[in-house]
TrEMBL record:
Hydrolase is among the record's keywords: yes
One Gene Ontology term of the molecular function aspect: hydrolase activity
Record has Hydrolase as a keyword: yes
Chain ranges of the Metallo-beta-lactamase domain: 7-190
Protein name, entry field: UPF0173 metal-dependent hydrolase AFM12_14105
SUPFAM superfamilies: Metallo-hydrolase/oxidoreductase
Domain of life (superkingdom): Bacteria
Transmembrane regions listed in the UniProt entry: none
Protein family per UniProt: Belongs to the UPF0173 family.
Gene3D superfamilies: Ribonuclease Z/Hydroxyacylglutathione hydrolase-like (3.60.15.10)
Keywords: Hydrolase
Origin species: Jiulongibacter sediminis
Stored InterPro entries: Metallo-B-lactamas (IPR001279), RibonucZ/Hydroxyglut_hydro (IPR036866), UPF0173 (IPR022877), UPF0173_UPF0282_UlaG_hydrolase (IPR050114)
A Pfam family the protein falls into: Lactamase_B_3
Length: 226
């Protein structure tokens, strides 16, 4: 399983012969200017919620690649009206796809699509297959619901958590989240893209290290192999 960072909260996951793209916000992110959106050909696009900084390039990429969108029912319905195929889910539900099992889990945030349409309830995903298990938290506050993940899902090999504060939990709460989900291998996201979420990355690394948890802050286009 190969996980590549595309900036902000966007990741590409290559597993079981399939390519998944998470929350594509690339073309308007100056930090990700080296990425050619037209070159992306995922099989699936996973969307955690409807905010523009998570869906901006989803329509373009889905139409050029034929990718299926996986998200909550409301977001999938919105894209279906644009002629894009999708698979709708809701909290607590899981489905066996050709790339593995995907479970849609709680996130504490808000969700509205770029045109003002209700984006349904925000969420996160837990993905597992024979290659590993990953939690993609999406935009969320710290919540005790995270304690259900190690009870209802396989042991996590990696978790992608927001650490930028202001709109989501900050790195101090993300350390607690890592404890709730029972994962000591964390990748940070949703930080430094905009002024309100700029952080002291050295301090964040120190806080995680003190807790005995590995925090990785990958460079854009850097990959992690499980």
């Amino acid at each position: 399983m190969k996980v590549t960072y595309f900036g902000h909260s966007c990741f590409q996951i290559e597993t079981q012969g399939k390519t998944l793209l998470i929350d594509p916000f690339i073309s308007a992110n100056p930090l990700a200017s080296a990425i050619d959106v037209s070159s992306l050909k995922p099989d699936y696009i996973l969307i955690t919620h409807g905010h523009q900084d998570h869906v901006l390039d989803a329509e373009t990429i889905a139409k050029q690649s034929g990718a299926k969108i996986i998200s909550n029912f409301e977001i999938v319905t919105w894209y279906s009206e644009k002629g894009i195929d999708g698979h709708g889910m809701n909290h607590g539900g899981k489905f066996n796809f050709d790339f593995g099992t995907l479970k849609y889990v709680t996130a504490v945030h808000s969700s509205v699509l770029p045109d003002g349409t209700n984006g349904g309830n925000p969420g996160g995903f837990v993905l597992w297959n024979s290659e590993g298990s990953i939690y993609i938290a999406g935009d969320t506050a710290l919540t005790l619901d995270m304690q259900l993940i190690p009870i209802t899902c396989p042991e996590l090999d990696l978790a992608i958590l927001p650490i930028g504060d202001n709109f989501t939990m900050g790195y101090e709460d993300a350390v607690l989240a890592a404890g709730y989900i029972g994962c000591k291998n964390i990748v940070g996201c949703h930080y430094d893209t905009f002024p309100p979420i700029q952080i002291d990355t050295q301090k964040a690394l120190e806080v995680f290290e003190k807790a005995g948890i590995k925090l990785t802050l990958p460079k854009i286009t850097e990959s992690i192999n499980l």
